[in-house]
Specification:
Helix content: 40-55%
Strand content: 15-25%
Distance between the termini: 60 Å
Number of strands: 18
Number of helices: 15
Bound molecules: zinc ion
Largest sheet: 9 strands, mixed
């Protein structure tokens, strides 16, 4: 496949902007790129599939470092009773009731609607964190099948927690172990070991998770210090703050993702740095839950590896870029915080290196020969000069979600000129709308049971 007549933005090191460029894709990989005339001469033979970018930008597919497909049916759902007054109440009143309402078909359609959204917004790799305590065994296969059907790339895990009893904690462990092994048969989906958060994990369960993960060559994916309550609980339970507590069980390391880390202190961040643990930042979620602003500028200076996720917000990752760019300026009353090049580095290079941790041996998130052909076309025509150096600010102030017109993953066109090719968007939305009322009713029953005992 030859993509011609585009402005290539390689997101490589260094990032290059190539006007009038072309990209040649073969066997799911980028085989060659450069000036259009050169590639036409080399590959412009009859019968070669062609995409005319018509002057659009050609970028690597976008990566999301932390999301929750399972939360999709919360959209527009009524929450009974008094509004949640803090993050622990949001967990109890919303997420820990919604996850119990999900069965096989709900998990399937929750994933599909998010995957439609991802293709629409050019997000081709997603790192998901799943919970469905009444449908644990096999849940990750259901999601993986949906990802395969969509043609996207994903890293999946099941969140182990003690909050639903020992049996379900064990089932969660087993699902991670089973799926990490089973996923080796798949090419665009792999597994990691999910943990909910320190505040719902006992020492015994953490120990069991570490033991189960042994020999799997895996890291963990866990929420850390999203709210002070997580730290308070850890101190109360173990006398240690969360990060040293997790380190004691061997949970940290270069394959582990710690989501949020909003309330970690300096000593904890030193451990995150020393262990090479990834921290994913989700500013829209942090703002929505009123949990505070993670000290990302400081984390960057401390050498911590920071990635950008969306925590189940839309897969329009440029909205997440913008939230990250704005949040830290207002939270610190300092317009120098979270500069554009930092946000861009986190969302592109760092997210790509994180994806490569899971898809070992692959080059992801860069338009370079040999990289996976995850490519998007963006209908953005700048009215000021665009070059490597000022690209982050074009994205932050100029890019809109509606500008993604074509999404390609592993060399397969998933959306062309805004028409989805692998998923039937209308049919999926109709099915999801049919399932949602049942999920909402089950949620209401769990809510009433929680209130009336
Ligand atoms: Zn999360």
């Amino acid at each position: 496949m030859l993509i011609v007549n585009g402005t290539l933005v390689t997101m490589g090191t260094p990032n290059r902007v190539i006007p009038g460029g072309a990209l040649y894709v073969q066997d799911g990989r980028i085989a060659d790129l450069g000036p259009g005339a050169d590639l036409e001469a080399r590959y412009g033979r009859a019968g070669e599939e062609r995409i005319d970018a018509r002057g659009q930008l050609v970028l690597p597919g976008i990566i999301c470092a932390h999301t929750h497909f399972y939360g999709a049916f919360s959209r527009g759902m009524a929450l009974p009773g008094e509004p949640a007054g803090n993050f622990p109440e949001i967990l109890e009143k919303l997420w820990w009731r919604l996850d119990k309402a999900l069965w096989r078909d709900d998990v399937h359609y929750s994933a599909l609607v998010c995957l439609v959204d991802a293709i629409r917004h050019g997000t081709t790799t997603l790192i998901d964190h799943h919970a469905s305590p009444n449908f644990i065994d096999g849940s990750l296969d259901v999601i993986a099948d949906a990802v395969d059907e969509a043609g996207l790339r994903a890293v999946l895990c099941y969140e182990v927690t003690d909050r639903d009893g020992a049996e379900k904690a064990r089932a969660g462990i087993d699902e991670n172990v089973r799926f990490i092994r089973a996923a080796s048969e798949r090419t665009r989906v792999c597994g990691t070991f999910g943990l909910h958060a320190s505040l719902t994990l006992s020492d015994e369960t953490l120990e069991a998770c570490a033991a189960a993960a042994e020999g799997l060559d895996t890291g963990f994916h866990i929420h850390v210090a999203e709210h002070e309550a997580d730290e308070d609980d850890s101190l109360h339970k173990s006398g240690q703050r969360i990060v040293p507590r997790l380190e004691r069980f061997g949970i940290l390391g270069p394959k582990t993702i710690v989501a949020h880390a909003v309330h970690t202190d300096e000593a904890e961040r030193a451990i995150l740095y020393e262990t090479g643990t990834w921290v994913s930042h989700q500013p829209r979620s942090n703002m929505n839950n009123g949990v505070g602003a993670a000290p990302i500028d400081r984390m960057r200076d401390e050498g911590i590896k920071l990635a950008l996720g969306n925590d189940g917000f839309s897969n329009n990752m440029w909205a997440e870029w913008k939230a990250a760019y704005l949040l830290h300026k207002v939270a610190n009353r300092d317009p120098r915080r979270a500069p554009g090049d930092f946000i861009a580095q986190m969302a592109t290079q760092a997210n790509a290196r994180l994806a490569e941790v899971f898809f070992a041996g692959e080059t992801i998130g860069r338009l370079v020969p040999g990289a996976v052909a995850d490519v998007i076309l963006v209908d953005y025509h700048p009215f000021t000069p665009l070059a490597e150096g000022n690209l982050p600010w074009h994205i932050l102030f100029g890019f809109e979600a509606s500008m993604v017109t074509t999404t390609i993953a592993a060399g397969r066109v998933l959306m062309r000129d805004r028409a989805l090719l692998t998923l039937d968007e209308a049919a999926i939305a109709a099915e999801a709308r049919a399932y949602a009322p049942t999920v909402w009713e089950a949620y209401q029953r769990h809510a009433e049971r929680a209130v009336h005992g």
